Amino acid sequence: MSQGRIASYEPYARSLLRIVAGLAFAQHGAQKILGLLGGMGGKGAKAVAFSQMWFAGVVELVGGVLILLGLFTLPAAFIASGEMAVAYFQVHWPQNFWPIVNRGELAVVYCFLFLYFFTAGPGPWSLDQLIRKKPSS
Questions:
Q1: Within a 13 Å sphere around the CA of 92, how many CA atoms are in the beta-carbon half?
Q2: How confident is the model at residue 136 (pLDDT cuts 50, 70, 90)?
Q3: Is 70 exceeded by the pLDDT of residue 137?
Q4: What are the C-alpha distances in Å from 75 to residues 2, 49, 71, 117?
Q5: How far apart are CA 129 and CA 73, in angstroms?
Q6: Which burial class, exposed, middle or buried, applies to 29 when counting CB atoms under 10 A from its CB (0-12, 13-18, 19+)?
Q7: Residue 2's pLDDT band (cuts 50, 70, 90)
Protein backbone atom coordinates (compact mmCIF):
# COMPACT_ATOMS: atom_id res chain seq x y z
CA MET A 1 0.00 0.00 0.00
CA SER A 2 1.47 3.36 -1.02
CA GLN A 3 2.03 6.25 1.37
CA GLY A 4 -0.38 8.38 -0.67
CA ARG A 5 -3.14 5.85 -0.34
CA ILE A 6 -2.53 5.46 3.39
CA ALA A 7 -2.52 9.25 3.80
CA SER A 8 -5.97 9.42 2.21
CA TYR A 9 -7.32 7.62 5.30
CA GLU A 10 -5.88 10.20 7.71
CA PRO A 11 -9.09 12.24 8.17
CA TYR A 12 -11.02 9.09 9.07
CA ALA A 13 -8.29 7.87 11.43
CA ARG A 14 -8.38 11.33 13.07
CA SER A 15 -12.14 11.02 13.51
CA LEU A 16 -11.76 7.59 15.13
CA LEU A 17 -8.99 8.85 17.39
CA ARG A 18 -11.19 11.82 18.42
CA ILE A 19 -14.16 9.55 19.18
CA VAL A 20 -12.12 7.16 21.31
CA ALA A 21 -10.28 9.97 23.12
CA GLY A 22 -13.53 11.84 23.80
CA LEU A 23 -15.17 8.73 25.22
CA ALA A 24 -12.19 7.96 27.45
CA PHE A 25 -11.96 11.58 28.65
CA ALA A 26 -15.69 11.74 29.41
CA GLN A 27 -15.32 8.65 31.59
CA HIS A 28 -12.85 10.51 33.82
CA GLY A 29 -15.44 13.25 34.27
CA ALA A 30 -18.20 10.72 34.98
CA GLN A 31 -16.05 9.27 37.76
CA LYS A 32 -15.43 12.67 39.34
CA ILE A 33 -18.92 14.17 39.04
CA LEU A 34 -21.28 11.20 39.09
CA GLY A 35 -19.25 8.60 40.97
CA LEU A 36 -19.73 6.20 38.04
CA LEU A 37 -17.28 3.57 36.82
CA GLY A 38 -15.92 3.11 40.32
CA GLY A 39 -15.89 6.81 41.11
CA MET A 40 -12.83 8.58 42.42
CA GLY A 41 -10.35 6.18 43.95
CA GLY A 42 -12.45 3.20 42.85
CA LYS A 43 -14.79 3.60 45.82
CA GLY A 44 -17.69 5.41 44.17
CA ALA A 45 -16.60 8.74 45.63
CA LYS A 46 -17.54 12.01 43.90
CA ALA A 47 -15.76 15.34 43.89
CA VAL A 48 -17.12 17.97 46.25
CA ALA A 49 -19.44 20.27 44.28
CA PHE A 50 -17.74 23.42 43.01
CA SER A 51 -14.28 22.27 44.12
CA GLN A 52 -11.38 22.39 41.67
CA MET A 53 -11.72 18.63 41.18
CA TRP A 54 -15.44 19.05 40.43
CA PHE A 55 -14.75 21.74 37.80
CA ALA A 56 -12.12 19.45 36.27
CA GLY A 57 -14.78 16.74 36.13
CA VAL A 58 -17.19 19.11 34.38
CA VAL A 59 -14.55 19.94 31.76
CA GLU A 60 -13.80 16.24 31.31
CA LEU A 61 -17.41 15.08 31.09
CA VAL A 62 -18.82 17.90 28.97
CA GLY A 63 -15.63 18.40 26.97
CA GLY A 64 -15.25 14.67 26.44
CA VAL A 65 -18.81 14.34 25.12
CA LEU A 66 -18.35 17.37 22.82
CA ILE A 67 -15.06 15.97 21.53
CA LEU A 68 -16.63 12.52 21.09
CA LEU A 69 -19.46 14.02 19.02
CA GLY A 70 -17.17 16.39 17.17
CA LEU A 71 -19.32 19.34 18.26
CA PHE A 72 -17.59 22.64 19.07
CA THR A 73 -14.45 20.55 18.77
CA LEU A 74 -11.91 23.37 18.57
CA PRO A 75 -12.95 25.24 21.74
CA ALA A 76 -13.65 21.99 23.61
CA ALA A 77 -10.24 20.57 22.66
CA PHE A 78 -8.47 23.83 23.55
CA ILE A 79 -10.09 23.96 27.00
CA ALA A 80 -9.47 20.24 27.61
CA SER A 81 -5.83 20.63 26.58
CA GLY A 82 -5.43 23.53 28.99
CA GLU A 83 -7.06 21.57 31.80
CA MET A 84 -4.63 18.72 31.28
CA ALA A 85 -1.67 21.13 31.30
CA VAL A 86 -2.90 22.56 34.62
CA ALA A 87 -3.45 19.04 35.99
CA TYR A 88 0.06 18.05 35.01
CA PHE A 89 1.88 21.08 36.39
CA GLN A 90 -0.24 21.39 39.52
CA VAL A 91 -0.53 17.73 40.53
CA HIS A 92 2.17 15.67 38.81
CA TRP A 93 5.14 17.96 38.13
CA PRO A 94 5.83 18.77 41.81
CA GLN A 95 6.27 15.05 42.55
CA ASN A 96 8.98 14.39 39.96
CA PHE A 97 10.29 15.70 36.66
CA TRP A 98 9.55 12.52 34.67
CA PRO A 99 5.91 11.81 33.71
CA ILE A 100 6.36 8.05 34.05
CA VAL A 101 7.55 8.51 37.63
CA ASN A 102 5.03 11.19 38.66
CA ARG A 103 2.15 9.26 37.01
CA GLY A 104 1.35 12.22 34.78
CA GLU A 105 1.85 10.53 31.41
CA LEU A 106 -1.90 10.36 30.75
CA ALA A 107 -2.28 14.09 31.41
CA VAL A 108 0.61 14.81 29.03
CA VAL A 109 -0.82 12.57 26.30
CA TYR A 110 -4.33 14.05 26.64
CA CYS A 111 -2.88 17.58 26.64
CA PHE A 112 -1.05 17.11 23.35
CA LEU A 113 -3.77 14.96 21.80
CA PHE A 114 -6.37 17.67 22.40
CA LEU A 115 -3.93 20.32 21.18
CA TYR A 116 -3.65 18.25 17.99
CA PHE A 117 -7.45 18.23 17.56
CA PHE A 118 -7.49 21.99 18.18
CA THR A 119 -5.05 22.51 15.30
CA ALA A 120 -6.15 19.70 12.93
CA GLY A 121 -9.92 19.80 13.43
CA PRO A 122 -12.36 17.02 14.18
CA GLY A 123 -12.22 15.04 10.94
CA PRO A 124 -15.09 14.15 8.62
CA TRP A 125 -17.12 12.05 11.07
CA SER A 126 -18.19 14.94 13.29
CA LEU A 127 -21.20 17.11 13.95
CA ASP A 128 -19.03 20.15 13.23
CA GLN A 129 -18.47 18.82 9.70
CA LEU A 130 -22.16 17.98 9.28
CA ILE A 131 -23.20 21.49 10.38
CA ARG A 132 -20.58 23.08 8.12
CA LYS A 133 -21.97 21.19 5.08
CA LYS A 134 -25.60 22.11 5.85
CA PRO A 135 -27.03 24.01 2.87
CA SER A 136 -28.25 27.56 3.47
CA SER A 137 -31.92 28.34 2.86
A1: 18
A2: low
A3: no
A4: 35, 24, 9, 10
A5: 10
A6: buried
A7: confident
What one-letter code names the amino acid at 87? A
> Distances from the Cα of 79 to the Cαs of 26, 67, 110, in angstroms?
14, 11, 11
**Could you give the residue ranges of the DSSP H alpha helices within the chain?**
3-7, 10-34, 52-69, 73-87, 99-102, 105-120, 127-133
Of 71, 64, 80, 70, give the one whose Cα is nearest residue 29: 64
Q: What distance in Å separates the CA atoms of residue 10 and residue 63, rounded to the nearest whole number?
A: 23
- pTM for this entry: 0.93
Cα–Cα distance measured from residue 81 to residue 79, given in angstroms and rounded to the nearest whole number: 5
Domain range summary for the chain, segments of one domain joined by +: 12-122
Q: What angle do CA 119, 73, 85 make, to 5 degrees?
A: 65
Mean pLDDT of 111-129: 98
> What residues contact residue 110 under an 8 Å CB cut-off, 6+ apart?
21, 25, 80, 81, 84
Q: Which residues pair with 45 in a beta bridge?
A: 40
Contact partners, residue 13, CB within 8 Å, separation at least 6:
123
Q: SS3 letters for 93-108?
A: CCCCCCHHHHCCHHHH
